[in-house]
Amino acid sequence: MNRLAGKVAMITGAGRGIGAAIALAFAREGASVALAELDIEMASATCERIKKEVDAANVIAVQTDVTQSASVKNALAQTEAQFGPLDVLVNNAGINVFCDPLTMTDDDWRRCFAVDLDGVWNGCRAALPGMVERECGSIVNIASTHSFKIIPGCFPYPVAKHGVIGLTKALGIEYAPNHVRVNAIAPGYIETQLTHDWWDSRSDPQAARQATLDLQPMKRIGQPQEVAMTAVFLASDEAPFINASCITVDGGRSALYHD
To answer: Is 157 one of the annotated active-site residues of the chain?
Structure first.
């Protein structure tokens, strides 16, 4: 407990799933947390749940469209007005866009990149000036194992996620002299609502679920809190020399040569 005591954090896409788990973990560790979320009702409900679970939790919900730089800057301004200067930014907001490359529309391409890559850059661009000026700060970008592995039928999502890793490394090196760290986390299969939605879209959801589990070396998929605790580590003062790096949280799946 209290690994993030005194720190101010903003987490995008924090209404549910991995983002909500990160928000809860940060609050438990003593951080003041802003849930920057497009669906403000969902974020507000998550805030209330966190307050019930964590005594004296300092959490707020801020409506944010990560595809709009002005919206992200406004969310940051609201966060700092409430809690003080930002110490930690977690760029978690993302969407799945899976298409056939040759039948994909221009709108599909733009929608994927607007959220999954531009959204990360908009967060970094908003947070970095203050962090650089204060010469401290940690940015954690939620990437994916799609950032370095390819699954057929998932285009252009992995293209955007590869870009997140490039952005992470470039900014991490650029601002290392200013003591600002930029890192990424690459989750594999994590049990979120999106995962359940995908299983439920199959003709046999139970068989689809079992097929996913069978692919995993540990014969289970990850839980959102397992990604969240990795984010706690990267955001904390326990990781002062980890920069421009990516931690993979996938139970070893991406290390497996073949099934």
So the answer is: yes
